[in-house]
Recover the amino acids of this structure.
């Protein structure tokens, strides 16, 4: 007689083991890091009444004056001083062209803003200061730089530079343009409480 096998109890299925993230609440995403450090917050734009300055060095190269003009225009446009662009570019072009033509080394152009005065200085390695000349003739190709400064700049001047530890001294020629209307154009950052009291510029002799 065949014996019946006893019924086997069903084996309970094993529950899946939760993975590293299963059953856990999602946490905050990690902040992007650069070189193992958190990125610094973006600074706020400089206010219109705040002073600033830039400086561009360029070699004794015929392309230098054009590069200086582009830099001047970019700086003034970015800071809401576009109405000074035409005069600043023309005068900076005259001074940087002379620096490339007569100096023996590199030169630098530095726009500096102290509301409401923009001063642009051009420094080179030639110590000779410009000498006032008689008005050039109609066909003259050179000699108009000082006349243009007199006509377009609100003030201008220059000085010799002493010997430096890194080489011979030179000179610095500057001009100033005054912003007639002190109000900035639309879109230029202003203090939250309204326009600040204009800062009286300190002009060197």
């Amino acid at each position: 007689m065949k014996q019946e096998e006893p019924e086997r109890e069903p084996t309970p299925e094993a529950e899946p083991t939760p993975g590293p993230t299963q059953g856990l609440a999602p946490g905050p995403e990690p902040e992007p890091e650069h070189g193992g450090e958190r990125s610094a917050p973006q600074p706020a734009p400089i206010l219109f009444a705040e002073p600033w300055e830039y400086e561009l060095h360029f070699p004794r190269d015929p392309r230098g004056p054009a590069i200086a003009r582009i830099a001047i225009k970019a700086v003034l446009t970015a800071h809401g001083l576009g109405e000074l662009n035409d005069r600043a570019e023309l005068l900076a072009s005259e001074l940087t062209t002379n620096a490339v033509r007569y100096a023996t080394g590199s030169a630098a152009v530095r726009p500096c803003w102290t509301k409401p005065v923009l001063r642009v200085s051009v420094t080179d390695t030639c110590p000779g200061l410009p000498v006032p000349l008689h008005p050039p003739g109609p066909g003259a190709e050179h000699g108009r730089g000082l006349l243009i400064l007199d006509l377009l700049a609100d003030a201008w001047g220059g000085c010799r530079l002493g010997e430096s530890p890194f080489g011979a001294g030179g000179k610095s020629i500057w001009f100033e343009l005054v912003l007639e209307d002190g109000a900035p154009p639309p879109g230029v950052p202003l203090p939250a409480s309204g326009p600040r009291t204009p800062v009286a510029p300190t002009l060197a002799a």
Notes: The helical segments are 64-78, 85-102, 145-152. Confidence is low (pLDDT under 50) at residues 193-205. The CA atoms of residues 131 and 146 lie 9 Å apart. The longest helix spans residues 85-102.
